[in-house]
Amino acid sequence: MACAMIPLDEQQVTEATGPLGKERTLPALHPDRKEERCFVTYKPPPEDSSPAQVEEYLEHGKFITEDLDWLLALRHDKFWCQVVFDESLQKCLDSYLRHSPRGLDPSSLPSSPAVADMQRCIHRAVFMTFLRMATHKESKESFITPTVFGEIIYNNFLFDIPKILDLCVLFGKGNAQLLHKMIENIFTQQPCYYGDLDEAVLSVLQVLDTILAKCGLQCEGATDLVDLVLYLCDTCTTIQAFLDIFPAACSTFHCHSFLNRLASFYEVAVPDIEKAVRKRNFDDDSLQEDLWRRVCHARRRMVEMAHLLLQHTCLQPILEGSENIQTFVEELLQHFTTFLPEKRFLLDYDEQFPIADDISLLQQAFPLLYPSSTWSHTLRHMFLNESTSQPLSLRNIHIPLIGRNGAACTISAGELESLLTHIRDLLPDLGEGFLLACLHQYNYSSELVINYILEDRLHPDLDKLDRAMPSCGNCEELPPVLSTRSNVFDDDEFDVFNRDQVDMTRVWKGRRKGESVRDLLNDKQHIAEQKERYLTYDTVVDEVIVTPSESGAIDNLNDYDDEYDDTYDINQVGANDLDGDSNLLNRRPFTIPQVLRQGGRPQMQEENIEEEEDEKEDAVKRDQFVQDPALLRERAEARRATMQHRKGYGDTHTKFSYEKCQGQSTETLLDRRKKEAHKSRGANHNRRAMSDRKRNKGMIPS
C-alpha cells in the first residue's frame, strides 16, 4: 500500500509477483504496475442512419465508455500508471480529439437519438479523463509534486498545444470555467508550454500565408476551394476558442503582431474567397450553402479574435488602472489607425463590436482623449464611400493621438506642410493633392508613403488618382477658433459661447444697486451664526442634579450592561503613542504668555525654580538599570581599594591606579567625553531614556 501524505513520485509499494507470490518493492509509478487493457480508437457517428452502421457505432462507443469509466474508477497511483505507460489509452484520446465532429460538421447532428446519447456519453468520459490528467492534487493523500507533475505531462506528451487547442474547441461550450482552470494549471506547472505556444503562433501565421498562396493571391495555381474553406474555418474557430478560454495567451499572439497580420489577411483574402464561392458552379447546391456558411463563420471568428486581442492587451489594462496607462492608450489608438486602410475589416469589426463604445470607455478612463465623435464621423465617412463605390478618402478624418504631455492632438497645418516638404524633396514630380491623399491613406506617415510609392505598392484607390493632381484649396475647412480654444472659464454659467441663455440678474455694471459699504459693514448676520456654534463650548457641567422623577432613568444607566466591550479596559491605550500629551509637556512645558502674566519676571524665575526641582525629582526617579560605565568603574576601583587596604597593601595599588589615570592624555579625555555625550545616538545606548519614558507612561512599576 502507498504511504499517506507522501507525493506519488516519492512513494514505494510492495507487491507480490510470480507464481510463488514473492514480494518486491517498486516505485508507485512503474510500467509493471500498468493493467493490461486495450483501449479502442474512436470513430465518428455515421452520416447516414443505416441500421448496420448505427449498431456498429453503438457497440464501438460502448467499449470506449466502459474502458474510460473503468479508468476513472482507479485509485490515484493506478490511474497515473495507466495514463503514463498505456499507449493504447493515448491513441484512444487522440482519436477522439481528431475525429470528433465540430459545430458545423454534418455529423454533429445525429439523426438517431441512440447515436446522440452515445456521443454525449463518450464526450463526457473523454472530458473527465483529460480533467483528471490535468490535476496534480486530488486530495491530501493523493497528489504529485508540482514540478514532477509538469515534467510527467510534458515529457510523456500527455498534453501539447494542438491537444489544448482541440480541447478548447470541443469542450469550451458549457465547460469554460473548468477548462480555464485546467489549462491554467498546465501552463503554471510547466512553463515550457509558453515556448511551444510561441512556436505555434508562428505556425498559425504560416497557415495564413498558405491560404493566401492557395487562393492564387501570391502565386499561380488552382486549389480545391472546398478544402481551402474547411481549412480556414477550422483554423479560425480553433484559435478563437483558445483565446476565449485562456486569455493569458493573448500576450504571446500580440508579441508577433498577430493583430495587424490578421487585419491584412482579412482585407485581402476574405473578399476573394467569397467571390470564388459565389461564382463557382457546384453540382450540389447544399455544398455551396455549406461553404458560404463556413466563410461567414470564419469571418465572425476572425473579428472576435481581433476583439479578444484588443480587449486583453490594451483595453483591460487601461480599465484596471495599470501602470504606464498612457502606453496602452497610445497602443490601442495606433491599432485603430492601422485598421483605417483595411476598410472591409474595420466595417465588419465595427458592426460586431462598435468602436465608438470602446472609445467612450477609453475616454472615461483617460479624459485627455480626443472625443469619440471623431471615430463615428470616420466610420460614417467610410460607409458612404463603400456604398457609392468611390475611392476611400480620409481627408476629413481626425485621428486622435496622444502627445508627449498626455494631451490629445491632431495633424496641424504646419506639421502637414512639413510632411509634404519631406516627400517632395525625394519625389518632386508628384502633385500636392496626390500626396495629401496618400498621407491620409497611410495615417500621415511620410516614410510609409515614400516606401509604397517607390515599391509601386500603393493602395488600389490611390492608383486610380492622377499623380500630378493639384491640391484643392477649399477641400478642408479650418475649424472655428471658438471650437478649438481652451480657457479656464469654459462651460461656466457665464460662458456665452457655449450657452444660449445667461442669468442676467447676476450681471451688473459698476456698483450693485441697493447696496452700500455701510450696509455691508453693519450686516452682523455671520457673527450671530458663529456665536451659536461657539456657545456649545462655553458651558462645562461637572455635576448633574437629578430630580426624583429622573432617578429611575439614572439607575438604569448604572445597571450592568452585558453588551459593554471591555476589551481595552486593561490596556493602556496610547502608552506607546509618540504624540501623547505627556510627551508634548516633557518636550515643551506649558507657559503663560508674557502679556497675560501679572508678576512679570519674578514669576518666570519661580517657574524656572520649579522646573529645576522637577528635573531633580525626575533624576532621582530614573531607573539606573544601565548606569554610566565610567561610574561603575570608579565604584569598582573604590571597592577594590577598600579590600586591599584591609589586607595591608592598598597604598601601593591606590598609587598605581592614580598614576595610571594621571598618565592619560588630554585627547583621550576629550574623546571619552564626546563618547559619553553622543553614545545615545546609535546601538542600544538609549535604553535609559526609553526606560524613563515607559515608567512615566505607567507601563512598569516605579
Q: Please describe the biggest sheet, giving its number of strands, its sense, and whether it closes into a barrel.
A: 2 strands, antiparallel
Major β-sheet strand ordering: 1-2
Q: Whole-number average pLDDT?
A: 77
Task: Please identify the structural class as seen in this structure.
Answer: mainly alpha
The coarse overall form would be extended
Our estimate of the beta-strand percent is: under 5%
Biased composition (Basic residues): 675-688
Region (Disordered): 598-623, 641-702
InterPro entries: ASCC2, ASCC2_CUE, CUE, UBA-like_sf
Biased composition (Acidic residues): 607-617
How would you describe what is shown here?
The chain is an all-alpha fold. The protein contains 30 helices and four strands. The chain has helices at 51-73, 76-85, 87-99, 113-133, 146-155, 161-171, 176-189, 192-214, 225-245, 250-255, 258-279, 285-319, 325-339, 343-352, 355-365, 373-388, 413-426, 432-441, 446-454, 460-463, 481-484, 517-522, 525-535, 551-558, 581-587, 601-621, 629-647, 650-662, 666-678, 687-697; strands at 12-17, 22-27, 401-402, 408-409. A two-stranded antiparallel ribbon has the order 1-2. It has a two-stranded antiparallel sheet with strand order 3-4. Helix 6 packs across helix 9, helix 8 (192-214) packs parallel to helix 11 and helix 12 (285-319) packs antiparallel against helix 13. The longest helix is centred in the middle third of the chain and has 35 residues, at 285-319. It starts with 11 loop residues before the first strand and ends in a 5-residue tail after the last helix. Residues 217-222, 370-409 and 652-659 have low confidence and may be disordered.
